[in-house]
Design a protein that fits this description.
Blueprint: E1 3-5, H1 9-12, E2 20-22, H2 27-39, E3 45-48, E4 57-63, H3 67-72, E5 90-96, E6 103-112, E7 123-129, H4 132-144, E8 148-149, H5 154-161, H6 167-178, H7 182-193, H8 195-220, H9 229-248, H10 251-259, E9 261-267, H11 273-281, E10 299-305, E11 308-314, H12 324-339, E12 342-348, H13 355-362, E13 370-375, E14 392-395, H14 404-414, H15 429-450, H16 456-474, E15 477-478, H17 480-487
Helix pairs in contact: 6-7, 8-9, 8-16, 9-15, 15-16
The structure holds guanosine-5'-diphosphate and magnesium ion (MG).
Length: about 500
């Protein structure tokens, strides 16, 4: 698997990184080389960029060296060809399928010329009429005119390979499309704007700089460190480490914003679980009935808590049942509780029967991620609940709505949701994995440098490995596998 570096500095040092390929001093030059040789030959790519379904407009995007020529083949003879039109122009035209000569649509075409487009390549955007059939026919005509169907995320992958955006910005495009709450969208917009890339890029540059200095010393000295060198570098490494640790510390928030949290509502039959789900959602999602065992399957709904997406799940009541379907539901509920990020355990505060058993069940639950909701507080309460150390409990009434705000506050507390900080990056699992690798290597380098007569070759190796880890985050160092993993999350057309 070739490893691509977009920095000349990877070739300068005396420490060779095995299996590496240095592609030149200019990031664009390097990526262009990759672009032509490996990923994409000259055939332009095309896809419908808008969501399927009935809509006013459908946009088909064509990108690549021959994109404008594709447009030439789609229009009547008497219309001026896009390939001879200026960048930034648009025009109205009939669209003809070059294979069938049928008139497909009426459209507006927009001409972008490299490098001033999303992908950095010549791009033609065709705005036709929306609708499933209409957009399919338009795309078929574009493919007949010489484009090939784009792979998921291929437009954004080309934008990255052509140096338009770094890898964190490419990922932010996907995060923004997938965002389920305003807060998640805002975090994605900040990343798209480059906040994470700049943060990581600065540490990456410092690490490479120190590494070059160490390698220089290796070439000219017998491993003797000049006066004050170790002290200065120790300071620089401490700053880089604290930046990396701060970024790694945003993982929890990033994870919640991207993946959401699984919140499972559990409890005995008739405790008021489905009523609580409905009360939180503000509509009658789950069937509520005084007959125990009404909810047999698992019901999942999206719910935004402080801008964080929750997967709120109502389950079958936990009890031993003779009914096979209900037993299956109870089994699923137990698995879900195990997997959940949070568990709301509902106990009917008004029921005399089974009161003690219901509280006894709590002992078997993962209390560190459980909120006890004592329900039906609008009815006379049977007895005060026993105290479980460290367990957060709230009193709620699905009927009157009392206690719902306290329940939300308890959930926020357990999920450790902080108030939104617009200027903060929120890293993903991929980022934090690389950050941890970088932190480990940078710490090793710092420890070696603090010892008397350090082995500078080993120090340089650690620094390079730390820089490489950070380089993978922003895409200054990449493999095709890494790009495949990043862009496979995308939809076709982006
Ligand atoms: N008075 C009162 N009754 C409730 C409340 N929550 C649920 N119930 C009733 O308790 C019964 C069982 O409710 P349900 O939500 O289906 O419980 P589940 O089996 O735990 O899902 C139904 O008759 C509900 O109307 C509440 O807050 N107050
Ligand atoms: Mg129910």
């Amino acid at each position: 698997m070739p490893l691509f570096f977009t920095d000349a500095s990877w070739c300068n040092g005396s420490t060779a990184v095995s299996g590496s390929a240095c592609l030149g001093s200019n990031p664009n030059e390097a990526t262009t080389l990759e672009h032509v040789t490996a990923a994409n030959p000259v055939t332009p790519i095309a896809a419908v960029a808008t969501a399927p379904g009935a809509a006013g407009v459908c946009v088909v995007r064509v990108s690549g060296a021959g994109a404008l020529a594709v447009g030439d083949r789609l229009i009547p003879e008497n219309v001026r060809k896009p390939s001879i039109r200026a960048a930034g122009t648009f025009f109205h035209t009939a669209v003809i399928d070059p294979a069938t000569r049928e008139r497909v649509d009426d459209a507006v075409m927009l001409v972008y010329r490299a490098p001033h487009s999303y992908t950095g390549e010549n791009t033609l955007e065709i705005q036709g009429h929306g609708g499933i059939v209409s957009s399919r026919r338009l795309l078929e005509a574009v493919l007949a005119a010489g484009a090939r169907l784009a792979a998921p995320g291929e437009f954004t992958r080309r934008a990255f390979l052509n140096g338009r955006i770094d890898l964190t910005q490419a990922e932010a495009v996907c995060d923004l499309i997938m965002a389920k709450t305003d807060r998640a969208a805002l975090a994605a917009v900040m990343q798209l704007e480059g906040i994470l890339g700049r943060n990581v890029g600065a540490s990456y540059a410092v690490l490479l700089e120190i590494c070059a200095e160490v390698e220089h010393l290796l070439d000219f000295d017998e491993g003797e460190l000049p006066c004050a060198f170790a002290e200065r570098v120790a300071g620089q490494l401490a700053d880089v480490l604290s930046d990396m640790e701060r970024l790694a510390g945003t993982w929890h928030e990033g994870q919640l914003l991207r993946e959401g949290a699984l919140v499972v509502i559990s409890g005995r039959p008739n405790a008021g679980k489905s009523s609580l789900l409905n009360a939180l959602l503000g509509h009658e999602r789950a069937i509520v009935h005084d007959q125990p065992g009404t909810t047999r399957d698992v019901i999942e709904e999206f719910y935004a808590l402080n801008g964080v997406p929750l997967r709120l799940v109502d389950t079958a009541g936990l009890r031993d049942s003779a009914n096979a379907v209900e037993r299956e539901g109870v089994g699923r509920a137990r698995v879900l509780i195990e997997r959940s990020d949070l568990n709301i355990h509902v106990v009917d505060g008004s029921a005399a029967a089974g009161h003690h058993e219901a509280f006894a069940e709590l002992a078997a639950l993962p209390l560190h991620k459980t909120v006890l909701a004592i329900s039906k507080t609008d009815l006379p309460q049977f007895a005060p609940p026993p105290i479980f150390e460290g367990l957060i409990s709230v009193r709620v009434s699905a009927k009157s709505g009392a206690g719902l705000e306290a329940l939300k506050a308890a959930l926020s507390r357990l999920l450790e949701l902080n108030d939104t900080d617009d200027s903060r990056a929120a890293v993903s699992q991929r980022h934090v994995d690389a950050l941890r690798e970088g932190i480990m290597q940078a710490r090793d380098a710092a420890a070696l440098l603090s010892a008397p007569a350090p082995d500078l070759a080993v120090v340089a190796c650690c620094l390079r490995a730390a820089a490489e880890a950070l380089g993978r985050i922003i895409g200054r160092v990449y493999t095709d596998d890494l790009l495949d993993a990043v862009f496979s999350r995308f939809c076709v057309g982006k």
